[in-house]
């Protein structure tokens, strides 16, 4: 497999996938939940009980599959599989929806010969409609034959979790721990209803590292705070957001904890996997034409930096200006000012790419043509230095386009 050096700590495995870590296989198929013939049911399966961890949406209307997954991971902190459907969120579906989600868990567990409590469930799609369980049952019965440890199996799974996504999102890295090569891989879906504190996204991370569920939960939550919780497309938080990590432990390293000498290396690689997936979701925002990155520096605290970054990246006016390739720094500074965080109104610098537009809170003449050319690119970086402290944060989003309205005006139809 081709490898690209990403940092001193790890390398990116160019042809890697969620099945690259030892012990994992995956697959997907079309069972009939989607109107098209695209895959709509998939699974990841581990050959041994894997240490498991999860983070979930903060929306109070949590979908039925989230309750099932929380129950599964909470039982022993172990998983053997996660089964996912797209085309139907199974959210706001009452007791019947909950019963259907538990049936998905028990039926798939029976088909692959594992305890029901070792299976997680995830769903994505339209809210408020009951699952067509006759189709789901048939799909579950056929799914084990589609499971494969190859890239083909991983691709089948990645196809099965998509909704309005235009592209599959996956990444894999290799890191040396205790003289052993450990792989960390991820796959995700997400395009609309994306906002920090999780989004309408499903994310799955596999690794063959030996690590306990408690330590895995800690590194997952820390990585989520720095990545998935720093993206936004439209300011809406979904009912189904879920990020699940599974560790097979088959790489043969000594168990990773915060006291392990290579812990920082592992955590850095894990965060990188989450960051790549988070940025891919932001770039693939519904109707988006570009990825927008907001960097906040010189804040009084990390919490303040994150709040300001989220406010700027989530501003509809900033997002509209990015779509129009308009270097309207006034919209950026207005978002900074309404973030609710401490700001010295006399010391703020703003740069769009390499172009300075504001220094010490005073306008700087700049080349409008150069700014226009930069903003027409597919990636835009907005840099804000508050000159108040040492803390910083980065948030990612996309521009707001006509197509976003078109897509969401007819989502159910």
UniProtKB/TrEMBL annotation:
Is-annotated flag, keyword Amino-acid biosynthesis? yes
Q: What does the record give as the reaction this protein catalyses?
A: L-glutamate + acetyl-CoA = N-acetyl-L-glutamate + CoA + H(+); N(2)-acetyl-L-ornithine + L-glutamate = N-acetyl-L-glutamate + L-ornithine
Please name the InterPro entries in this protein's record.
Arg_biosynth_ArgJ, ArgJ-like_dom_sf, ArgJ_beta_C
Its domain of life?
Bacteria
Q: GO molecular function: any one?
A: L-glutamate N-acetyltransferase activity, acting on acetyl-L-ornithine as donor
Entry keyword set:
Acyltransferase, Amino-acid biosynthesis, Arginine biosynthesis, Autocatalytic cleavage, Cytoplasm, Multifunctional enzyme, Transferase
In this UniProt entry, which residues are annotated as the site Involved in the stabilization of negative charge on the oxyanion by the formation of the oxyanion hole?
124-125
The answer to whether UniProt assigns keyword Electron transport to this entry is no
Q: Record's SUPFAM superfamilies?
A: DmpA/ArgJ-like
* Active site residues of this protein: 200
Q: Site (Cleavage): which residue positions?
A: 199-200
Query: What's its top-level EC category?
Result: transferase
In which compartments does the protein localize?
Cytoplasm
Q: In which pathway does it act?
A: Amino-acid biosynthesis; L-arginine biosynthesis; N(2)-acetyl-L-ornithine from L-glutamate: step 1/4; Amino-acid biosynthesis; L-arginine biosynthesis; L-ornithine and N-acetyl-L-glutamate from L-glutamate and N(2)-acetyl-L-ornithine (cyclic): step 1/1
Q: What is its main location?
A: cytoplasm
Q: Name one Pfam family in it.
A: ArgJ
EC number assigned by the record? 2.3.1.35, 2.3.1.1
Q: Which residues bind substrate?
A: 163, 189, 200, 286, 408, 413
**Role description:** Catalyzes two activities which are involved in the cyclic version of arginine biosynthesis: the synthesis of N-acetylglutamate from glutamate and acetyl-CoA as the acetyl donor, and of ornithine by transacetylation between N(2)-acetylornithine and glutamate.
How does it associate, per the subunit comment? Answer: Heterotetramer of two alpha and two beta chains.
Which family does this protein fall into?
Answer: Belongs to the ArgJ family.
State the name under which the record lists this protein. Arginine biosynthesis bifunctional protein ArgJ
Q: What is the source species? A: Paenibacillus thailandensis
